[in-house]
Amino acid sequence: MERVVITGMGAVTPVGNDVQTFWESLKAGKCGVGPITKFDVSEFKVKLAAEVKDFDVTQYVDKREARRMDVNCHFALAAAQQAVDQAGLREGNFDPYRTGVIYGSGVGGLQIAEQEIPKLNEKGPGRVSPLCIPEMIANMAAAYISMRFGFKGENFCPVSACATGNHAIGEAMRAIRHGYQDVVVCGGTENGIIPISMAGFQNMKAVHMGEDPACASIPFDARRSGFVMGEGAGCLVLESLTHAQARGATILAEIAGYGATGDAYHITSPSPDGEAASRAILGAITDAGLTPADVDYINAHGTSTPLNEKYETIAIKKAFGDEAYKVKVSSTKSMTGHLLGGAAAVEAIACVMAIRDGVVPPTIGYQEADPDCDLDITPNRAVEMPVNVAISNSLGFGGHNACILIKKV
Description:
- The protein is an alpha/beta fold.
- The protein has helices at residues 19-28, 63-66, 71-87, 110-123, 132-136, 140-149, 164-177, 195-203, 241-246, 275-287, 306-320, 333-336, 343-357; strands spanning 4-12, 34-35, 48-49, 99-105, 155-156, 183-190, 232-240, 253-262, 297-299, 328-330, 359-360, 383-384, 389-396, 400-407.
């Protein structure tokens, strides 16, 4: 089987609109959470989100074309352009039919639906935009990436809520490992800071409703009371080691393991026994031919909800046994908020950078220990240490669990 390596990365996040800025912010413990500015929240209970700042889509997409797509596609195309540029993919050094795109979104162009449904109800069907459907459907980010770069291989869009990005990365790895593709551009994106989304999450009591950014997204802290919505995208270029070496690409890290399971339990809550999540974690470790003792860092799903960290801690303990207390754990969602379908992709990038620089990013805002979350959660400050193997957990609504393992080359 082919070994699979990462040769390019791109990111648009609440703490930086490229990989290096994003990573410097994580190392510094910069909080990306603030008052919502994208719409009027006077009638909303939720007041905070982690918005992307100072993003200019026209650096990546023509203004006229940008008007014909949802913002999730803006983020995705920017991240993809960065990743493809870093990987050095250009016409002539890849086979278009062996270069795929597996790129997901949790809800796709929900903002378009939010805009067009009132037109239907108030003015009739003739006023609905003829572009409504292609702007709304979740696969359009994958489609636009393929069209931008001429990638004609496998092309599809995983949709598994918060686990979307890791499913995309894992399936991309498998496609290359088993010889179906040479290169796959993968990741996830989300444009979730919109009224319909925020209203839905607030009414299900899933989001934090306070007004102090410093204690809003506080994973593993006993005071945690709900996640903070983020937005943005992450993109990785995966490639067979053989193909990358043949074209002289710079190899950033190896994607060596992938595990995925389903809780079969509840539409929003993780399973209290943590069994399925632990099997996804162990699956990724076993897939890489490693043991729990080999893992240096876990980028936790860590959403800052009361149930997630309690049950994720149980899952980590089941997977790692006594090693659970020896591995560094942190949640970068403490800084970025929760990017939903884009979360796992930017967290995979954080793992690659942790390996490259030998730095474990912190869980900021941590003040009150929770006895149900008694892991080494790396509070408030980054820790310098060798990181050879990192795991990223993603646990989505509906019980979708996906875990990837990244290691130093």
